[in-house]
Amino acid sequence: MAESEHSYHPGRREYIQIGVILTVLTAIEVGLFYADPPPAVAIPVLLALTALKFILVVFWFMHLRFDTPLFRRLFFTGGILATIIYGIVAATFYFGGA
Amino acid sequence: MTVDVHSPESTADHGHHTSLGISNTKLAMWCFIGSECLFFGALISAYLIYINERADGPGAELFDIEFTSASTFILLMSSLSMVLALAGIQAGDMRRFRIWIVATGLMGSVFLAGQIYEFTVFLSEGANVTVSPFWSAFFLLTGFHGVHVAFGILMLIAAWASSLTGRLRMENAETIENLGLYWHFVDVVWILLFTLVYLIPALGGGGS
Description:
Chain A is mainly alpha-helical. Helix content of chain A is 77%, strand content 3%. In chain A, helix 1 packs antiparallel against helix 2. Chain A starts with 7 loop residues before the first strand and ends with a helix. Chain B is mainly α. Chain B has a single domain, classed as Four Helix Bundle (Hemerythrin (Met), subunit A) (Up-down Bundle). In chain B, helix 1 runs parallel beside helix 5, helix 2 packs antiparallel against helix 5 and helix 3 runs antiparallel to helix 4. The interface between A and B is large, with 54 and 61 residues.
């Protein structure tokens, strides 16, 4: 697919808006940490906030939302393989008793 | 507001393109980033596996979350200044590009200085690479990330110097886009590390 179909980048205003959202999400993370909720509540919320920040940087600052889908596949293939690595290592330790 | 980066008044991207219509250098950078995911995936896996292996040594109670939160904020803002530098060079405004690229480098340097300071505090508290698998994995993971930040700062300095000598111009905006991809990837990795390495273990989520 030609890049010209995916070659739009956000402008300065949109970049600054994303920066503000990232700041707010980080402040919520830190605030949640100091609110000292039970880990069973805090950990899923922290992971969700982290995922949101990850998506904002990857899709807007790294332009994956606007660029060719091939780049998205390359990046997420790496991410998925990394998750598989973790699964294999964790399983080795769990079942192998290492 | 949206910018067409290939419009005639915007950046003239003269890099070689593949038969897919995709720039070779950008494709190479994304392949590199994909492989880096595996590197960091392996190191994060090791850290999570060893999160409770403290061997009677110190643990996550040594983390100074206020300090690391400030470092995290600085690195996040460096990503913002990086995209503003890219917007500057794409618009042909080299002065604005230089201001933001210097700001990015300075924020990266502050982050790195903070990480070095943090390491010295941990070492003085008796945590080092040999004390337990937890600290071994911690220093390897965060140190590997720090090396990436240091390498990024060197590339930012090179880009700034090239723009001063006239070797880097609006026509080379894709070079800065690729540098930006690297810098944002380093930022994205830290977003994960801040939660997985610092916040969750300090909350007691590591089972300490």
